[in-house]
């Protein structure tokens, strides 16, 4: 290992990790992103054109994907 990497690792031991979205608000963020993705997907299906792919299709698919991941984090996956 590089000595600078070891120094960074040891310096980071004392700092606490603070996530961008806290555990208490993950469910609200997930619901918002999933609903935003579904509304965007509905708008895209009403008028499918090449310009609407970049305007509605890609952002709505990303919002839906991130919303599902946040929902997995907030609710948990029980199999």
Automatic annotation (TrEMBL):
Name of the protein in question: Dolichyl-diphosphooligosaccharide-protein glycosyltransferase subunit OST5
Keyword Transmembrane: yes
Keywords: Membrane, Transmembrane, Transmembrane helix
Sequence intervals crossing the membrane: 27-46, 53-78
InterPro entries to which the protein is assigned, alphabetical: TMEM258/Ost5 (IPR007915)
Location relative to the cell: Membrane
GO cellular component: oligosaccharyltransferase complex
Pfam families, per database record: Ost5
Topology in membrane: Multi-pass membrane protein
Family: Belongs to the OST5 family.
Role: Subunit of the oligosaccharyl transferase (OST) complex that catalyzes the initial transfer of a defined glycan (Glc(3)Man(9)GlcNAc(2) in eukaryotes) from the lipid carrier dolichol-pyrophosphate to an asparagine residue within an Asn-X-Ser/Thr consensus motif in nascent polypeptide chains, the first step in protein N-glycosylation. N-glycosylation occurs cotranslationally and the complex associates with the Sec61 complex at the channel-forming translocon complex that mediates protein translocation across the endoplasmic reticulum (ER). All subunits are required for a maximal enzyme activity.
């Amino acid at each position: 290992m590089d000595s600078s990497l070891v120094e960074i690792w040891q310096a980071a031991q004392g700092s606490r990790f603070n996530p961008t979205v806290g555990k208490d608000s993950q469910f609200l963020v997930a619901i918002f992103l999933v609903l935003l993705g579904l509304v965007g997907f509905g708008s895209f299906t009403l008028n499918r054109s090449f310009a609407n792919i970049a305007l509605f299709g890609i952002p709505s698919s990303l919002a839906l994907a991130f919303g599902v991941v946040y929902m997995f984090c907030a609710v948990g996956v029980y199999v």
